Amino acid sequence: MHITQLNRECLLHLFSFLDKNSRKNLAKTCHKLQEVFQDPLLWSLLNFHSPVELRKDNFLLGPALKHLSICWYSQRVKMCNIEDWMKNSFQKDFCKRHENTVSDFLLDVCNRCPNLLSLTLSGCGHVTDDCILQLLKNCPNLKSLKLENCVRITDHTLKAVTLHGASLQTLQVDFCRNVTKAGLERVREKCPSVMLRAERSANMIPDSKPEKTLMLEKASRKLVQL
Predict the structure, then answer these.
(1) What predicted TM-score, i.e. pTM, was given to this entire model?
(2) The domain 44-224 is classified under which CATH number: 3.30.70, 3.30.310, 3.20.20, 3.80.10?
(3) Residue 57, Cβ neighbours under 10 Å: how many?
(4) Which of 1, 85, 189, 201 is deepest in the core (most CB within 10 A)?
């Protein structure tokens, strides 16, 4: 029996075991498999592990998407673990090229995936409060929001949770060093049913240069001038 002789349900089940690239390549072989590839039922879960993956055409975004995960780390470039002033030229160039990749993708999710139930972002250092605000507004069924090492996330995101996270059950802001204890307490007060976790967040070093470092830089510049 040829694969195209299988019914739609069997083909969907077969596709579900394949990664995004394999699904796309198989869909190129005939019109019937292309139709299976485009079936919304196939795209209720999406996982991404690098910025480049977000720009490919090997997946579909739509109302069927329920669970989304964007998590990446780099042993060579720890782009989201240190401030801009500590990065070398390679790291800065890497970050600049991908600065808006995740945010633009998430705004697309806002417009096309209103039934999203869970979102996990890890190592996404350029995601902003406004992006999360739009997600909370446009995805009213969101039950789980997990943010890890998203350094631009601040108390504005926590406030958005209290205003627009009516369905939220789980909130994690681990290693989001620019949220404060006051912001976390506000969430606990206004959303007591939300399971909140903030490991190593509010008491970490903020995303700015320490005063001592600024003084050393000024002294160095003066020595160079002399």
Answers:
(1) 0.80
(2) 3.80.10
(3) 7
(4) 201
